[in-house]
Design a protein that fits this description.
The protein is mainly alpha-helical and 553 residues long. The protein is 59% helix and 3% strand.
Amino acid sequence: QGLIYGLAGTPGRLSDWSPQGRARVADALRQGLAELDRTPPRDGADRRAAAVMRDRLQVWLASATAQDWARELDAGFLSPPAMDRMALATAPLADAGDAELLASRLTGVPAGMQGYAVALRVGLEEGRPGAGVLAARLVAMLRASARSDGGYFGGLAARAAALPGVDTWTARRLREAGRAADGAYDQLADWLEDEYLSRAARDPAVGAERYARALQDHLGQTADPVELASWGWEELDRLEQELRREAAAGWPGVPLAEVVDRLDHDPDEPSAAGPAALLDWLGQLDQQVARRLDEEFDIPPELRVLRHELAPPGSAAGAYYLPPTEDGARPGVVVWTMPPGRVPLWRWQTFSHHEGMPGHHLELGGVRFLPAPLSRFQTGLGEISGYSEGWGLYAERLMDELGAFDRPATRLGFLISQAFRTVRVVVDTGLHLGLRVPAGLADPTAGQVITPEVAVELLVRHGWQTQDFARSEVLRYLGCPAQAVAYKLGEREWLRVRAQARQRIPGLTNRQFHAAALRLGPLPLRLLESEVLTALDDVAPDPLRHSEYPEAL
């Protein structure tokens, strides 16, 4: 994770994914908690840093103690193969020294995958296997990585070997290590197919106990999943009414489903022709947005650059953000999975605001350059999905408030994004706890238990996604329980705290609220209100007046 988040001084090796390695991590977590208990805070910043660190260490230790690692098969982000590949893909690669480090790390991939297989074997032997559907998806990712274009790691090694100053011995070591790493992914896929899949769990639900741990992890607070699902259905109904009103205003007399179909397939609707055109469009959008946000945010100069890249082969659908490295060598990066065929940009603008400006780039990226004292843990490892993804969705809504979605199509894209994230709440809770679709819902699945098949139908009909994307999303929810609910619940908390702040401080501006809140760094949701309101205690109304953003994006 140190490589992924750009932390300086990350060791020249990858993680030990074996049971012994996991046990050492658990011991380190216990030692960290004990050290926190022995260290009194010096001031408010210390107290907050300790609270964040204690929250994270406790949830990680709870997961380690329950040996959740023995059934971790998420092919998107969490499984060791996904983590190792992401770490190597994001490691600096600019000179001969970086090439030597890459060779060292690649050399450790086979042992890492062997250790991971031993960990999965623990789950099998203890009668706690992971889900077969996730194992099959992981096999597909491993094959795609090992075999696409001669092997992903082989290609990475070849790029490193071509760097100026790389000697012959290091170049040969790189090529051999790249081939071995690709082979290790292939061998792991063989083992999963030959030994694991036949013994994997048929029911992918994680159950109430593990789901409660996952909620605490991703939200930073306890929550009743049944209540969350109930709120999700209410919020979805509200958003669907707004969607119908928006469609009726922009396309009078045309049913919403037909409007969406037209926008997705109308050749006159703006679209990117391919990967290069898409990345270019995203970069142009960033520049336009950045100029408009100076009035709403204190933007560090280091965040004026944002890069967009395509994800490695076999990656899950979607996008993710990587913050700038601590040394500033790598700027913030948004990594996108390029959908096949035509790219309907009317849907993508809102996702760009979520991942880039003013979303994760100003939140996750911003903590690296804040003047307020934050611990290295806060700026590098203390991410909390409810805070972070909640901010990303809040950022989308803020751009709507500022008039950024100035065409009916792009505003419809924003509302569909909101509906999609809301369906996630009911689908994720339903999948893992066996909840049902409300009997009174006007939907063919009304009254049914939310199985993976039902979840796909709900994402297609109420989240306005394609079948392929919906299936990919369901695998994501199954592999990473409770993370998908963090978006809407985090947004709800950000909006509630902003409303509280405005009520408490008449005349409070967005700029003041954003500056005070983001300066605190990531927080468990249970602490967001108290910490933000405390930070705003000495704030006076800002005389800076706000425009309505009349120009078109």
